Protein 1
Amino acid sequence: MIGFGLVTPLTSVHARAFFYFGGKSDKTPVVSASTEAQNSQTIAFLEAATNVDPRKAMGGGDITIIGDSAFISDAGPTGTIADIESSGHQGKVSLYVVRSGDTISQVANMFGVTVETILWANDLTRGSVLREGQHLVILPIDGVQHTVQKGDTLRGVANKYKGDLDEILEFNNVTADQKLSIGDIIIVPNGKEVLTSAGVTTTSRSRTIASYPSYAGYYSHPIPDGHKTQGTHGYNGVDYGAPIGTPVYAAAEGTVIVSRFKTGSCGRTCFGGYGNYIVIEHPNGTQTLYGHLSAVYTSVGGRVKKGQWIGEVGNTGRSTGAHLHFEVRGAKNPL
C-alpha cells in the first residue's frame, strides 16, 4: 500500500483531528482535538525534511506525500494526512496546496525542479495563474510522469519522452521486463513532453475515462436512496441529490487516506471546493472520493468495510444544493 505523510505549512496551522478505533462507525467522532504548530518549529521542520529555502516563495501550502517515485495509483485531491514522514519527500510524488501569492516559478524553486516539470505534471502553460487552494502535482526530479496505457512498455515510454531507459529503471526501482499495469505511473527523469504539430504538448494525463478498467460489482452505491442530479463530470465524478444528513456509505472496503472536516462554515473555497470530504484507497489500487459532506465519521488510516457508514450528505464547498459528489479514481465510475 502507498505510504502517505504530511509536511505541515510554514504558517501556523489549526488542525482538527478525528481518532477512529476499530471497524465500526457511529454518529460522532470518538475523539476530536485541535493542535497548533508555531512558525519557528514548522519552518525548522520543513528545512530539515525537504531542504526547502522558505524565502524563495510564499509557500506555506500543505505538501502531501502521495506515493513512491513510480507505479503509484492515480491520486485524488490532497488532504491533511497524519503520520509525518521525517525522511522528507525525496523520491516521492507530492501534492502541494497553493497559497496566496505563489507563482509557478516560485513553487519550482521551492522544490528544486524546473518550471517545465511543474507545467507538464499539471497540464499548465507558462501563462497559467495559480489560485489559492489549487493542488499541484510535484515530481521529485526534473522530468515527466507517464500514466501507463494499454500496450505500453518501459522502452517505449523512454523513447516517447526522450528519456534514458537505464535512468528510468534505476529511479523507479524496476527491471526492463517489469510488467506494466494500466494506470501505473512512471517517472521519466529529465524526460520532455512531446509537441504536436499544433505546438500543444501531449500528455498521458489527458487519457480518456474510456481507457479506465471496469470492476463490475466491485463498488456498491454510496447513497442508495439518492437521485442523480449530474452525470459524469470533473474527475470522473457524479452527483446524487439527497437531504442533508442522509447516510453516505463506503462503496468498497479500503483504507481512509484523506479525511477533511472543517468545524463551522465550510464555504465555496473550502478544501478546494470539495467541502468536507473523504478519500478511500481500495485493495484493487483505485480510490473513491465522497464530497460536500455535512459530517465525517472516519479518520486517516482507518479501515472501512464495504457499505460502512462513513459520513452524511451535506452542502459544503462549491455546492448548489444538498448532494453527494462521488468520484472513482483509476476505474470507470459505475454510477
Protein 2
Amino acid sequence: MNTVEHNEISQLDSICEKAEQIFEGALQEFLVHGYAGTSMDRVAASAGVSKATVYNHFGDKEGLFIALVKRLAQKKYQIMVESHKAELMEAEPAVVVRQIANTILDNSLDDQEHLAFVRLVIGESGRFPELAKTFVHHLGKPGIKVLTEYLATQRYIAIRDPEAMARVIIGTLAHYVLMQEILQGKEIIPMERDRIINTLVDLVDHHPKPES
C-alpha cells in the first residue's frame, strides 16, 4: 500500500468515526427532546463536534434523522435477517418462521433504545409523516420482502398470497411488541411470546404443498 492509499483510508476512517459520534449524539438528543425539539446545536454539543461538522456530514436536521434511521435499520436488518438469510432459505417453514420470530422479538424486546426510538417515530409521525415513511421503508419493507420471497419460492408449502402472509407474520410480531412493550400493555393484556410464535408456525404449516 502506498502513502496516498494509506492517507485516503485514514481519511475515510476519520470520516466514519465522526459520523458515528454524530449518530450517537443525535440519537440521544432525539430521544430526549423529540424531533421538533432537537437542534443541530444540541446534536453538535452532544457529539463533541462543531456544528459545521454536523452540517457537512448530513446537510440539515431532516438529512441527519433520515441517515440515523437508515443506520439503525441497517443494523437491525443485519442482525434479524441478513445474518440468517442463506441458511433460512433452505429450511422448512416451521423452522424459518420460528427463527425469524424469535430473532425479531429478541432484538426488539431487549433493546430499550430501539423501543424508545420507535416511540419517537410514532409520536412524531403526525407532524412529520416523511420521517415515519423513512422508518418503514428502511426497517419494515426489507424484512417483508425477504419473507415474501421465501414463502413464494420454497418447496414445502403453497401460500396463495406470499406477501399477505409475510405481512401477517411481521405485523403480528410488530403488534406484539407495540402492545406489550411500547404501549406498556404486558400487565393489562399479557401474552406469552411462545403462544404467538406457535400460532404463526401453525398458520404457515396449514398450507402444505399438494403431492404431485
